[in-house]
Design goal:
binds magnesium ion, alpha/beta, 3-stranded antiparallel sheet, 20% strand
């Protein structure tokens, strides 16, 4: 069975109102989807996030022509070769070939991966808290209320993008409004130094609903991470930008993390992503995959967690939710799967058990114009 055709789908959505985190405002969302098709008529989807012009040229001129004619079931060799050109493009190829392999076997991806240990996987509502508006905090509190109405009970908000006192006022308002019915995650996107991160300790002593503090400081300071883990009084989580299992090892060896957050789109292939999850377990750590750019990566994160045994008999799967982006982003919504009461029911059937909404995708095909100024 050989690969005979490739479709590429560069998708763009310009945000009517910017939103962001400590790293700045986002004015658009984009995702690059590929569809690999075999001479037997099986197909598989992949996705990656990077500049759409770069990815379009890369798949048109190099990766696409090279893949045509290759054996579809030699996933490891093919993704390794593509990763030498572009790591995230390789992740997309890996996703598509994984789906084709599952379909060729007549299995769902979860069965290919050893079988599902649960039918539902918990998710948390992930917010980009900041906007250019002066009343960004009020808008954030209102948005969280709507997510709670929709059934979410675990919430992630951003810190580190405003002066400490302003960020603290925002979180205090969330706690006052909803603290008795949410579990809360704070994400600093590596924007503090250790001294500023420790300013949160006084507040943390009064809050017993914190799930974790995410990436308060830059990862290059592993010693500071270890110090914070010992002094902050809440679990520390991170690793969303790590490019593979080896990148996690210095942090894990230093005892710097409580919760490991690999992203399936940042690892060079899905097998490496699952390897990171396994290694985290070897270190006795929780896993909560990071997924932001696309709905297909999120689907694969849900599958991986659905196949993983629980971290703890006490807290069980509630302690390891998958990220669910609740901001305005129709590009993730092309995958017809939604959470109910903070959980996602895994689809059944060969491959992914579902297919993207092609009609919806056509509305967002990038027209080649500049979008990142
Ligand atoms: Mg984060």
């Amino acid at each position: 069975m050989q690969l005979s055709r490739i479709e590429t789908w560069p998708l763009l959505f310009r945000l009517p109102e910017p939103y962001g985190d400590a790293n700045g405002m986002k004015r658009y969302r984009s995702i690059f989807l590929i569809r690999l098709i075999t001479d037997d008529g099986l197909d598989g989807w992949g996705e990656c996030a990077d500049d759409l012009a770069v990815l379009s040229a890369l798949f048109r001129d190099r990766i696409g022509p090279w893949l045509i004619g290759q054996p579809a079931l030699e996933r490891s060799r093919l993704t390794e070769r593509v990763a030498a050109w572009h790591r995230k493009a390789a992740a997309a190829v890996s996703m598509a070939l994984t789906e084709i392999t599952a379909k060729a076997a007549g299995l769902h991806v979860c069965e290919l991966w050893g079988g599902r240990r649960r039918q539902r996987v918990p998710v948390y509502a992930s917010f980009q808290s900041y906007s250019p508006r002066a009343d960004w905090a009020e808008a954030s509190v209102a948005r969280i209320g709507r997510a709670l109405d929709a059934g979410f009970a675990a919430i992630k908000v951003k810190i580190g993008g405003k002066p400490f006192a302003e960020d603290r006022r925002h979180v205090v308002r969330i706690q006052e409004a909803y603290g008795d019915r949410i579990r809360l995650i704070l994400d600093g996107n590596q924007s503090y130094d250790a001294a500023c991160a420790r300013k949160w300790c006084a507040s943390f002593r009064h809050w017993d609903n914190l799930m974790w503090l995410e990436e308060p400081i830059p990862f290059k300071r592993a010693g500071d991470w270890r110090l914070l883990r010992q002094t902050m009084g809440v679990p520390l989580a991170g690793g969303e930008n790590m490019a593979g299992t080896a990148d996690f090892l210095p942090l894990l060896s230093a005892g710097a993390l409580d919760i490991v957050q690999p992203d399936p789109g940042h690892h060079p292939d899905l097998d490496a992503f699952r390897e990171t999850i396994s290694v985290a377990r070897q270190f006795g750590l929780r896993v909560s995959p990071h997924v932001y750019d696309g709905g297909l990566s999120r689907l694969y994160a849900l599958f991986a967690m659905g196949c993983l045994g629980p971290w703890s008999k006490m807290e069980g799967e509630r302690g390891e939710p998958v990220e669910w982006d609740v901001m305005d982003n129709p590009l993730a919504a092309i995958w017809p799967i939604r959470p109910e009461n903070g959980q996602v029911r895994l689809p059944e059937g060969p491959g992914l058990g579902l297919a993207p909404d092609l009609d919806a995708m056509r509305n967002y095909v990038w027209d080649g114009s500049r979008y990142d100024d």
